[in-house]
Amino acid sequence: MKIDGKAYRTIWRAGPAAVETIDQTRLPHELAFRRLDSLEGVVEAIKTMVVRGAPLIGASAAYGLAIALSEAGDDASLAAAYAALNASRPTAVNLRHALDDVRAVVAPLPPPERGEAAFRRADEICEEDVKLNRAIGEAGFKLIEAAHKASGRPVHVLTHCNAGWLACVDWGTATAPIYLAHDRGVPVHVYVDETRPRNQGASLTAFELGQHGVPFTLIADNAGGHLMQHGKVDLCIVGADRVTARGDAANKIGTYLKALAARANGVPFYVAAPGTTIDWTLDDGHAIEIEERSAREVTHIWGRLADGRVAEVEIAPPGTRAANPAFDVTPAELVSGIITERGVSAASKPALAALYGRG
Amino acid sequence: MKIDGKAYRTIWRAGPAAVETIDQTRLPHELAFRRLDSLEGVVEAIKTMVVRGAPLIGASAAYGLAIALSEAGDDASLAAAYAALNASRPTAVNLRHALDDVRAVVAPLPPPERGEAAFRRADEICEEDVKLNRAIGEAGFKLIEAAHKASGRPVHVLTHCNAGWLACVDWGTATAPIYLAHDRGVPVHVYVDETRPRNQGASLTAFELGQHGVPFTLIADNAGGHLMQHGKVDLCIVGADRVTARGDAANKIGTYLKALAARANGVPFYVAAPGTTIDWTLDDGHAIEIEERSAREVTHIWGRLADGRVAEVEIAPPGTRAANPAFDVTPAELVSGIITERGVSAASKPALAALYGRG
Fold first, then answer.
1. What is the mean pLDDT of residues A37-48?
2. Which of A294, B43, B204, B349 has the least CB density, counted as fewest CB within 10 Å?
3. Beta bridge partners of A249
4. How far is B214 from chain A, CA to nearest CA, in Å?
5. Helices (H) and strands (E) in chain B, counts
6. What is the per-residue pLDDT across B215-260, written as a single tens digit (0 to 9) for each?
7. What CATH number does the domain containing A168 carry?
């Protein structure tokens, strides 16, 4: 998608054994790039969230392995690089998948050929991610187009957190239908939940939509129910970290509240997620363990001071105890459909199983 | 209630023609007091939210009139002071009520006696507010006590925004039952919604509960639904800016989302509000006009820097457009009961009318 009028991906090749990324820790206050040309550099970029979002973490890790193998392709180096990258973030399943994928490709090769082969495979992983999200976009585009044809007005989409192209290689999941609609001239406007406590909506989704030229309005997470009561939202599209076999969806904390409001006010509520997000071993989303993150994310907020410097402010009395569950689970009964790369599925076990040939 | 172990009200007499207040613009970062001894000082304190909360604004305005009349008690001075105070905040109905009340008392008196009479009436207005909230506390206390008796465990109450003693003269509305329970040894713990965009939960409710010694946990507004799904909330108690004749409740934006989650998870949802909050002329809460406040409240946040200074940071890309509806309306069907000074009423027209003898 575009930044300052120029098309970008979140990660790209930059020389024979290096990649470049957007430093997402600086957004939305500064557009800075980070050249990654060592294993240590990639590990540090993942750890410090210079790159974030499960698909982008996976792509970055694949390149990290390629960079390491370009320097030394022997088995010991492969094992060490795999271990270092795999430990860089604890829970991202894409990270492990990407590492396993690249290792399987390079392991049978003679060490001197492994670096180049790993780079080729990492490139493919990126292309596959782009293709996947674009297919989600096509499926979701039809929903936005239909809403526009039905009303003749711009379509107002509410989204939560950042399931955008900055979390992927391009397009995003929840945002792909929005970008396609915008690029094809279907008028679309997005209500962006700021998404406390980490504010990924205010900092990342607002940045990427604004840079690509998609009209949006930032709102406090509290406002969505009121907007839906007053007919100002045509549909909700959110991402998901995990979807169960029956269609329960774990996503950023607060998603569930918007799903309740959507149901109460007759607003369709869609979860955009590729098939790789579906956990076929699990039916009941209540069983998903929810990460409890640092209280400091609730009591402190990062932002830009009037003089341009970025600083952290504390918003609560010193010593305040805070709880910070990072995700919640929206039960399938509140989900109008799952927008996948294979089309829109009902949020039900039979429908999802049929779509993915697991009947 | 207590601060640093000492009992406070939000406003008190400080000499023959002056009052003192807590400067709420400095909370929770600093406990500072403000002496108000001129009409201009009171008007400025209301305008700049040194004092805030409808009941406290009313009490402050009453004292403002008294201070003005102590200086000059003639009709022209009375009219000018009334006009200046009435214009200090646009929508607070208590402000107008308090001014009308004091004016009615002093108008028949000779000018030299008006100042002292106005102070006496302002004192009474404060005492009446304290009595009203304490009665709400007694009614709500029974709910907390019953929940504790039923479970044998501490009672977990979720509240939104600040309907606390800092908004009133003492006790608060939503907090009065909590303070009574705590003071009487019924174990109670409060989940405090931070209440974006103005963070009254994180700054004021967290401060007042913490200072009085009530255990609490601050949460992002997004977290309440998840907590209710997992049985961590026993009841919700919120305040209200206006309650319609049938029990629809206008309160701080985001209240409605918590009411939806409470209903979906079988958690009782109570609105604590005195009879003076009921608008008998209105049934359908959808007709309540919702104040749209500055976008800057969404895009910028105040807090304390590491060096102790208080500063504002911007959390969104420069120029971000934001919507900021300040209130939402929770329909009566989601309200388990209205906790009033006359007891707990069903949120229905017949029940409220019967309680207030308007059948």
1. 97
2. A294
3. A243, A330
4. 12
5. 12, 18
6. 999 999 999 999 999 999 999 999 999 999 999 999 999 999 999 9
7. 3.40.50.10470
B216, B294: one domain: yes
Question: Sign of the CA dihedral B205, B209, B210, B214?
Answer: negative
Quick one: A191 and A245 in the same domain? Answer: yes
B163 shares a domain with B116:
no
* Per-chain mean pLDDT for chain A: 96
* Residue-averaged pLDDT of chain B: 96
| Contacts with A191 (C-beta within 8 Å, 6 or more apart), sequence order | A156, A157, A158, A159, A216, A217, A219, A223, A224, A227, A232, A233, B323
Same domain, A121 and A21: yes
Q: What pLDDT digit, counting tens, does each position of A107-143 carry? A: 999 999 999 999 999 999 999 999 999 999 999 999 9
pLDDT band at residue A94 under the 50/70/90 scheme:
confident
Chain B neighbors of A321, CB-CB under 8 A: 216-218
Do A191 and A89 lie in a common domain?
Answer: no
Same domain, A150 and A91: no
Nearest chain B CA: its distance from A151 CA (Å): 23
> Cα(B61)–Cα(A173) distance, rounded to whole angstroms?
54
Any domain includes A133? no
Those residues whose C-beta lies under 8 Å from the C-beta of residue B221, and which sit 6 or more positions away, are A196, A220, A221, A222, A254, B160, B193, B194, B195, B196, B254, B257
ipTM above 0.90, yes or no: yes
Q: Degrees (nearest 5) of the Cα angle B323, B328, B334?
A: 145
| pLDDT tens digits for range A48-68 | 999 999 899 999 999 999 999
CATH number at residue A55: 1.20.120.420
Range A164-182 average pLDDT: 98
Query: Which residue among B218, B254, B311 sits closest to A320, beta carbon to beta carbon?
Result: B218
Domain boundary among the residues B66, B101, B128 is at B128
In a domain, B175, yes or no: yes
Q: Are A175 and A205 in contact (CB under 8 A)?
A: yes
B-contacting residues in A 174-203 (Cβ below 8 Å)? 191, 194-197, 199, 202-203
Q: Which of A262, A264, A231, A226 is nearest to A337 (CA)?
A: A262
- Read off the amino acid at residue B151: S
Is pLDDT of A93 > 80? no
Q: What is the DSSP string of A235-253?
A: EEEE--SEEETT--EEEET
pLDDT, tens digit (0-9, with 9 covering 90-100), for A211-227: 999 999 999 999 999 99
Residue type, A292: E
Residue entry with tokens 């990072």: A326
The terminus-to-terminus CA distance of chain A in angstroms comes to 37
* Dihedral pair phi/psi, residue B170, rounded to 5°: -160, 170
Q: How many domains does chain B have?
A: 2
For tokens 């403002």, name the residue: B64
B133 lies in some domain: no
Q: At what angle do helices B111-151 and B176-183 cross, to 10 degrees?
A: 60
Tell the burial category of A290 from Cβ atoms under 10 Å away from its Cβ (0-12, 13-18, 19+): middle
Say which DSSP state A347 is in: S
Q: Name which of B218, B222, B312 is nearest A322 (Cβ-Cβ).
A: B218
**Last residue of some domain: A99, A128, A157?**
A128
Task: Please calculate the CA angle A184-A190-A193 and round it to the nearest 5 degrees.
Answer: 150
Residues A49 and A110 grouped into a single domain? yes
Q: Which of the residues in chain B have pLDDT under 50?
A: none
Task: Give the nearest partner residue to B301 out of A286, A298, A315, using CB atoms.
Answer: A315
Within a domain: residue B321?
A: yes
Asked if residue B276 and residue B143 are part of one domain, the reply reads yes
Q: Which of the residues of B are catalytic?
A: 241
> How far away is chain B from the Cα of A26, in angstroms, using its nearest Cα?
11
Residue B91's pLDDT is what? Answer: 67
Query: Domain range spanning residue B23?
Result: 2-128
